[in-house]
Every structure is written in structure tokens, then in C-alpha cells.
Amino acid sequence: MERPNGDGTPAPDAPEMLIDQAVLRLRRIWAKPRLHRELQAQLDTGERLYLSHVLVIHAVGRALDAGAEEVTVGAVAERLDVDPSTASRLVADSIEAGYVVRRASTVDARRAPLELSAAGRRVMAATQRHRTRYFGRLMRDWTEHERSEFARLLSRFAAAAIASPPDITRPDETETDAERPG
Fold this sequence. Notes:
The chain is 60% helix and 3% strand. By secondary structure, it is mainly α. A two-stranded antiparallel ribbon has the order 1-2.
């Protein structure tokens, strides 16, 4: 679908436009500083808590939960899909805030693997609990089938987005099949 002016933009009610709007709105929900201030106050960590801390905490925690022997800055970069230098800054800030700690490697003395501090574990548990309760509340009138199907489709969508990130330097890759000259 295109707008009547023919600029190639999908119609406002096209699925791609509705998804775009929904994703942007959801992103704004989780980025609100108020949520992190309230969580910080509830947990009484004594340190500031930003979205970047939560992202690093979950990257480290989930890697450990998945059985990783050691979690490095490189592993955090991969999980967050950021450059290693960015991950290094995010991890350093999370260490300074007291949510992540470095420990001695049992595999390689040159490495300094990461783990969660007690405060980091509390933040991880609290944020997971908060999000899952929130999602449960939003979907309380959904059937179990609807919840399962939504989880399946959203997971599939997220996996596809991660596997094939957008590249605006290659417009032919961002066109849908219907938009390609044929």
C-alpha cells in the first residue's frame, strides 16, 4: 500500500506502519527515567539506576543463566548488539554503580569475567518480576492460545530483526517484495 501522493510510504493502516508505531511506543515506555527511579527507590540500592544498567545486568545475568562459564565485555556487546567499545563503557558504568563486578578468570589470567553483584541480582529479579506482572496484567483477558501465539510471533519477529538488522545505506534491502520493480 502507498499513500495517495505516491512517495512509496505505506498507508497509515498498513501492517508495517502499525508495527513501526507500536515498536516506537513500546520503546518509549521502557526508557522513561521515572520507572528506573521508582525501581531504584523500591530496591534501595543506594546507587542511580538507568536503562543502560538494566540492559547490562540482564545481558550478564542471562548469559550466566544460559550456562556461560564466563561473561566478558565482548559477550555483553554481542547480547546488546553494540560495539565492544560501547559495551566497555556501559559495563564500566554498571561496575561503578555497583551492579556488576569483575572477578578473576578460572580459564585465562588475562581475562576479567563479569558477574552480578548482590544489588545487580536484586535489580534483575525485580525488573523481570515487574515486567512479567505488567505483561500479565495487559493480557489478563487474553486466552492462553492468544498469549502463546503472541509470544511465538513476537519471538519470531525479534529473531528476524536481530538476524537481519536494517541497513539504510542499501535501500533495496529495505523495500518489501511488493515495492520492488518487477
